[in-house]
Amino acid sequence: MDSIKARIDALAKSLGKKVISDSYTDYHTLRKDYETQANQDVAKLQQESKRQRIEQLHGRSELNPKWTFANLVEDSEDVVEAVSIAHSFIAAHDDPSWRQSGSHMMIFYGDYGRGKSHIAGAIAHQLIDQYEITVLYRQLSTLLEMRFFSYDYSAQDNIGEKFREMQQELQDVDLLILDEVCVNETILKKNAQSWLGNLLRQRLVNNKNCILITNHNLAELEQALGAYCFESIKEYDTYKVRFSGPSRRKAVVPSAPEPTRVAGYKPNQVR
């Protein structure tokens, strides 16, 4: 009895078609090939979808794109220690029980230009890339100004609605980075202390993590934030990282020596 393949070839000849003997593939092989191709297509779609989600997370975070570990110079002991703690914090996200066990806070404190914001941003970028963590970076002073202007009911720019949307985002985001905490402030106003304390408490209840960046030492920070707000911080699992190395910002130096000025008025010389 002729095989199915032979019959197909005979039919092709009778119709004047070219016979390609090797073109026939049995059903099981064909199905396996189709399933493999389908799985590859699905994997590509998933990778593209993940890439788009990560790009959106980076965009919404408002992080400086240069704040990465690759761009960080580990030139002092405090930075080396901070990077070690940062990598431990990131690695802990592999454990679902750790992520669900409570709220975690990192406090980066030290003088200007020591790399606090850079390392906080590097942590955030890596968490977005590895775990698709939602991140929001904000300067506290900017939020407080926005909050103040939200009470201007005669404003035409919908500042009140914008702040309410921002307030919800501050509560919901997985990692909130607050920079310049109490910058140039000996103590926050009472209403600002209450607002920030309530925000931190709400995030604590929802197991959301925070990074606070400040130029104050811890004693000054406690005074600046006030008892109510600082008590909120104490409820978190807290990691305190002190930055004490040299400033990494370039000094402002004139490109050429300025000419010596002689006191007194000199009239124009007309020749």
Description:
This protein has 271 residues and is α/β, with parallel strands linked by helices. The protein folds into two domains: 32-60; 62-243, P-loop containing nucleotide triphosphate hydrolases (Rossmann fold), CATH 3.40.50. The protein is built from ten helices and five strands; from the N terminus they run H-H-H-H-E-H-E-H-H-E-H-E-H-H-E. The protein has helices at 4-14, 27-61, 77-91, 96-101, 116-131, 140-149, 159-172, 190-205, 218-225, 227-234, and strands at residues 104-110, 135-139, 175-179, 209-214, 237-243. Strands 2-3-4-1-5 form a five-stranded parallel β-sheet, sandwiched between helices. Strand 3 (175-179), helix 8 (190-205) and strand 4 (209-214) form a beta-alpha-beta unit. It is elongated and about 95 Å long.
Describe the SSE topology:
Blueprint lengths: L3 H11 L12 H35 L15 H15 L4 H6 L2 E7 L5 H16 L3 E5 H10 L9 H14 L2 E5 L10 H16 L3 E6 L3 H8 L1 H8 L2 E7 L28
Parallel strand pairs: 1-4, 1-5, 2-3, 3-4
Helix pairs in contact: 3-5, 7-8, 8-10, 9-10
- Radius of gyration of CA atoms, rounded to a whole number: 31 Å
Distance between the first and last residues' Cα: 122 Å
* Spatial strand order of the main sheet: 2-3-4-1-5
By CATH reckoning, the class of the largest domain would read Alpha Beta
Net shape: elongated
The chain-level structural class is alpha/beta
Q: Report the order of strands and helices.
A: HHHHEHEHHEHEHHE
Low-confidence stretches: 263-271
The H-level CATH homologous superfamily of the largest domain, spelled out, is P-loop containing nucleotide triphosphate hydrolases
Binned strand content: 5-15%
- Architecture per CATH nomenclature, i.e. the level-2 architecture of the largest domain: 3-Layer(aba) Sandwich
Mean pLDDT, to the nearest integer, reads: 81
Total individual domains: 2
Q: Kindly state the number of beta strands.
A: 5
Largest sheet data: 5 strands, parallel
Helix content percent band = 40-55%
> What is the count of helical runs?
10
CATH topology of the largest domain: Rossmann fold
